[in-house]
Amino acid sequence: MSLSIVSSDLAPAAIGPYSQAVRVGSFLFLSGQIPLDPVTMELVSPDIEPQTRRVLENLKAVLAAAGSNLSAVTKTTIYLTSLEDFAAVNRIYSEYFQAPYPARATVGVSALPRGARVEIDGIAVVDTSF
């Protein structure tokens, strides 16, 4: 099975030794995105709502680089530094994903890179010809 790296200039460059996404066969494994502006590489806002939107836009950009979109996402994990943000994140998440929704886990964490309040990673099926 072939492995290829997927990246987009419309999403933030990796801030460590990882790829934005790795495609293995029909599966695309999306690294966690934090709310960095892809141009400035700075957090978009200290507030959870713009942070969540930026994270999802970053994921959309990486998916587009793979010729795909959010409807191909089958699993996500959301990492929150405060579970009090769950309702706001859930509301915005539901604007980006429609039924049938991906499987999902939400995890409370003590900290995220660059002081982000939210990070989301995912898995997508980008080729259904298997």
The CATH C-level class name: Alpha Beta
**Second CATH tier, the architecture:** 2-Layer Sandwich
CATH superfamily: RutC-like
- Helical segment count: 2
What would you note in describing this structure?
It is built from two helices and six strands, in the order βββαβαββ. Helix 1 (48-65) runs parallel beside helix 2 (86-96). Strands 1-2-3-6-4-5 form a six-stranded mixed beta sheet, covered by helices on one side. With 130 residues, it is of the alpha+beta class. The mean pLDDT is 96. It has a single domain, classed as 60s Ribosomal Protein L30, Chain: A. Helices cover 22% and strands 28% of the residues. The chain has helices at 48-65, 86-96, and strands at residues 3-6, 21-24, 27-33, 73-80, 103-108, 118-125.
Describe what is shown at a glance.
By secondary structure, the chain is of the alpha+beta class.
Secondary-structure map:
Blueprint: E1 3-6, E2 21-24, E3 27-33, H1 48-65, E4 73-80, H2 86-96, E5 103-108, E6 118-125
Parallel strand pairs: 4-5
Antiparallel strand pairs: 1-2, 2-3, 3-6, 4-6
Jot down its keywords.
single chain, 130 residues, alpha+beta, 60s Ribosomal Protein L30, Chain: A, 6-stranded mixed β-sheet, 22% helix, globular
